[in-house]
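ok so I'm stuck.
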Amino acid sequence: MNRMVVKDKLLIPILSIIVFSVLFFIAVKTGLGIDYDSKIYIKGAEYIQSYGIISFLNEPSFAMWPPLEFVVISGIKSYSSLLLFQYLMVVISILYWNNFYSSFYEPDKLNQWVFALLLSTNVGLLLCAKFLWSESLFLFLVSTIIYYVFKYVKTQKVAYLFLIGLLSILLPLQRISGLFIILSIIAVTIFFLNNYRLILFESLGLFSFTGWFLITNAGLSRREGIELSFGLFSDVIFNYFDVVQKNFFPSILPYPVLGVLISCLVLIPLFVKAIGNIYIPTLFIWMTNTALIILSIFLKKAGNDQQEIMRFLTPIIPLLLILVLESISVLGVKWKIDRKLLILIPTLLSIYSFVRAIKNSILFSEL
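replied:
not stuck anymore, here's the structure
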């Protein structure tokens, strides 16, 4: 490989990490963020330290939450170490996504830079690193398994299969929505990748989830029953589109119109023949996960506010960033849009994202 190409391939991710790191160190001036969920994780981790993992799994008060986050926290001795761990999980995820985009999409340099900046200044990623939530480790697991699924298809290295199997086992033990990731990549493998050996390893997570469910019953006795409500469903949909919108634009309208337009934008390339082979599988993973997330929030009647939806979407938001940038590029070529305008749109997105991130990191430093 040409030395200049290697240099460019390393430079963009490194600068992306530097940007995120600056924002992170501003945001954590007051230390690790602790909220209601954080206190539950700390309490559960202390329980494991005192009584062991077997006793923890049989404790009804923790049955609603998958155990991996509690186990990880129980092995980390200080808040500063937890903060470092969460920072590393997000940083490694940023590296994976930058590599995923450059390796499998082979975008032009402008899109690589814009993606790197949008990713490193994403507010959701910053919150995941700041607060003691399960999303930071989950983000790492999601980033890694998606990257290596496509890496395996490209290289056919058997070692990647075992890594995919391990990640699949861990995903639903970190968050129940890990099941959504597993189901979506299995579906992508069946419909687009046609690799049945890969499906076998991807499916291992279904068994780990089943084992945990049989032991704990997933706290079903403590969960609210399903009650269909059009009002709740409309709230979930509204908040979903608003969260999508806020990843790119400020809320300048009373309704998330731009969120709806962005969601439609990523569908348009399906009707353009110039679309790359990987676009449809990426879109399928995004759409399957978002549909399952919306359905899950609706049925369990909880977590339907914007912050909760943001937390659900953050681990897969890099997929949306890629889809939007690729859609703009594909449509620009198809419709012969002036190159200056094509450069202007992602540049403005980057500037807004950067300014917003600085503002939010200063705000988070006071929490």
